[in-house]
């Protein structure tokens, strides 16, 4: 149950890094192949439940076009029949800065086994 590095890059449709825009992001944990987020024992999802972000690494894409976040998953794959987890990363809800493109889409990480 340790923090690990999660790097997020904001790229356009051609895969070109998009710097000079700051974007606060949110993380939700999903079981691979399912469309409902994993909930903790209190029924909470995301960074308020099964996912903890190290306070020293805010969940924000900075002006370099990247976010280097340290996260901890508080659920184990073995508790769900050894299924793998994925993070869904999206722009955090709230006011949209003027320089923020409208077409920022959520993305999903590759599946990972949490032991």
Protein described:
By secondary structure, the protein is mostly beta strands. The protein has strands at residues 4-9, 23-31, 51-53, 60-61, 66-73, 85-91, 107-108. The strands form two sheets. It has a four-stranded antiparallel sheet with strand order 4-2-6-7, with no helix packed on it. The protein has a three-stranded antiparallel sheet with strand order 1-5-3, with no helix packed on it. The termini are close together. The mean pLDDT is 85.
Question: What percent strand?
Answer: 25-35%
CA(first)-CA(last) distance: 8 Å
Unreliable runs, pLDDT <50, ≥5 residues?
A: none
Number of strands: 7
Question: Average pLDDT value?
Answer: 85
| Structural class designation | mainly beta
Total count of helical runs of at least 4 residues = 0
The gyration radius over C-alpha positions equals: 15 Å
Largest sheet: 4 strands, antiparallel
Shape: globular
Main sheet strand line-up: 4-2-6-7
- What kind of oligomer do you see? single chain
**Helix percent band:** under 10%
List keywords for this structure.
3-stranded antiparallel sheet; mainly beta; 7 strands; single chain; about 120 residues
Brief write-up:
By secondary structure, the protein is mostly beta strands. The protein contains no helices and 7 strands.
Fold topology:
Elements: E1 4-9, E2 23-31, E3 51-53, E4 60-61, E5 66-73, E6 85-91, E7 107-108
Antiparallel strand pairs: 1-5, 2-4, 2-6, 3-5, 6-7
């Amino acid at each position: 149950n340790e923090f690990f590095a999660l790097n997020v890059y904001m790229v356009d449709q051609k895969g070109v890094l998009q710097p000079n825009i700051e974007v606060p992001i949110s993380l939700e944990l999903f079981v691979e192949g399912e469309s409902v987020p994993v909930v903790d024992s209190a029924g909470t999802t995301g960074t308020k439940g099964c996912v903890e972000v190290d306070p020293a690494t805010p969940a924000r894409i900075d002006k370099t076009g990247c976010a280097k976040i340290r996260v901890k998953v508080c659920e184990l794959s073995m508790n769900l029949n050894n299924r793998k987890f994925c993070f869904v990363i999206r722009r955090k809800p709230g006011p949209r800065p003027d320089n923020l493109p409208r077409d920022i889409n959520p993305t999903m990480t590759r599946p990972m086994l949490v032991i």
